[in-house]
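Q: I'm building a small set of examples for a reading group on sequence design. Run inverse folding on the following structure and report the sequence directly after it, with nothing in between.
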């Protein structure tokens, strides 16, 4: 890992490779173009609006993160997308219904220039969708090679210096690790033999890592965390991150659950239900795709509450997650949480949370931050799993045999300390004793 002035500067163009041109992608693209025109602000983006404390509190050094670490500029980004529908980014944004038309009109010219390449799509993994803008190949290895050619063509056309790829397409059907995932040799044989255990998201990840391109998985699919693709990431010295962007209901859980545990309050049950009507909701209406999402959501509480360490408080709580497809709601997701807790002398209490959020509005700044931080990691020669980016994910990737840290505030502290370490600044421990006594 390179540090400080050793980190390569973000010179030249950054190619942003977006798998999926739906609600999240088009909201991200429209926002970036609006920010570049100074008609919108990057609200929700840590890289653009966040500050980082350096040194002691008395020093009052709190620069913007974008001024502290060498991040790429938004003006240097070029975009390549893949989608099963032929609509350009402007048309797709209108169809998604996230942004008002007057906002889209202000960046219409820029969005119309972004037209998706044919996508790698296999209907068995996403049964609720069907599009005609789909690549053909004799096997999955050939499909990966066609993706790599798309990237090379884009590199030549736009004179791209480096890339980042992020999967923000639909949730795929549930898969478990199998022999084909166990190492790179088996995986490449599986690509040639059209293994059913290799999903489209894995094909995209393989193509990216084979070319030395950082990859982030924004969905709950089994993708880049399999041993074969971890091996490829290490072999080619590429940073990877995932999985499942942490936006609405789960973000609130990673705030509330740490508070319950910090005060050593007990938990009897946590009931979560959602309604949403966008393409994501339609896909999750299929039980196999919902199982993928459910597994991601259910993993959060057990880790935060450390059930094995606190059996009297959390050893017997009931947890239920429901997602309902409701087309009239479109991208404006609504979630309800009923949390049954107990306190002193086991007296029961309740917390109720009703969150009316806009899923893509919350996800778009995460996409921006992941693109910029993964590009930074690549230039700093950080390879493999980037656990310091757990802040952005429901199911954070870790090194083998390590449990993930899901507490939002611990995740943020880890992220900022990683940036301090990169730039050769003192890490912040928040001990603070030296303000009150001589050590």
């Amino acid at each position: 890992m390179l540090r400080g002035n050793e980190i390569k500067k973000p010179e030249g163009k950054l190619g942003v490779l977006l798998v999926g041109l739906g609600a999240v992608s088009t909201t991200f693209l429209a926002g970036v173009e609006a920010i570049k025109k100074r008609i919108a602000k990057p609200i929700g983006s840590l890289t653009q609006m966040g500050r980082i404390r350096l040194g002691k509190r008395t020093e009052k050094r709190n620069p913007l993160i974008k001024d502290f670490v060498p991040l790429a500029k938004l003006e240097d980004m070029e975009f390549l997308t893949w989608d099963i529908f032929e609509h350009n980014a402007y048309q797709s944004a209108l169809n998604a219904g996230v942004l008002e038309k007057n906002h889209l009109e202000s960046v219409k010219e820029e969005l119309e220039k972004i037209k998706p390449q044919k996508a790698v799509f296999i209907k068995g993994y996403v049964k609720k969708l069907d599009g005609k803008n789909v690549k053909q190949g004799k096997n999955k290895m050939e499909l990966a090679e066609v993706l790599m050619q798309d990237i090379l063509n884009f590199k030549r056309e736009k004179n791209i210096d480096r890339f980042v790829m992020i999967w923000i397409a639909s949730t795929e059907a549930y898969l478990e690790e199998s022999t084909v995932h166990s190492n790179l040799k088996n995986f490449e044989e599986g690509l040639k033999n059209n293994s059913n255990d290799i999903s489209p998201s894995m094909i995209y990840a393989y193509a990216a890592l084979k070319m030395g391109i950082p990859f982030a998985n924004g969905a709950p699919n089994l993708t880049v965390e399999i041993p074969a693709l971890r091996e490829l990431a290490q072999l080619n010295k590429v940073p990877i991150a995932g999985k499942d962007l942490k936006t609405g209901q789960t973000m609130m859980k990673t705030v509330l659950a740490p508070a319950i545990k910090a005060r050593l309050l007990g938990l009897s049950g946590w009931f979560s239900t959602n309604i949403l009507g966008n393409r994501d909701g339609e896909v999750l209406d299929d039980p196999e795709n919902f199982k993928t999402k459910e597994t991601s959501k259910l993993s959060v509480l057990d880790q935060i509450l450390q059930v094995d360490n606190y059996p009297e408080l959390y050893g017997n709580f009931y947890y239920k997650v429901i997602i309902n497809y409701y087309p009239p709601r479109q991208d404006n997701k609504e979630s309800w949480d009923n949390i049954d807790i107990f306190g002193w002398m086991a007296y029961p209490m309740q917390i109720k949370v009703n969150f009316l959020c806009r899923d893509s509005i919350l996800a778009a700044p995460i996409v921006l931050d992941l693109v910029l931080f993964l590009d930074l990691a690549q230039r700093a020669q950080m390879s493999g799993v980037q656990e310091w980016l757990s802040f952005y994910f429901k199911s954070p990737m870790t090194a083998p045999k390590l449990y993930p840290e899901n507490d939002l505030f611990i995740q943020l502290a880890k992220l900022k300390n990683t940036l301090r370490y990169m730039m050769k600044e003192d890490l912040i421990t928040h001990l603070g004793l030296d303000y009150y006594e001589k050590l």
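The two ends are 33 Å apart (CA to CA).
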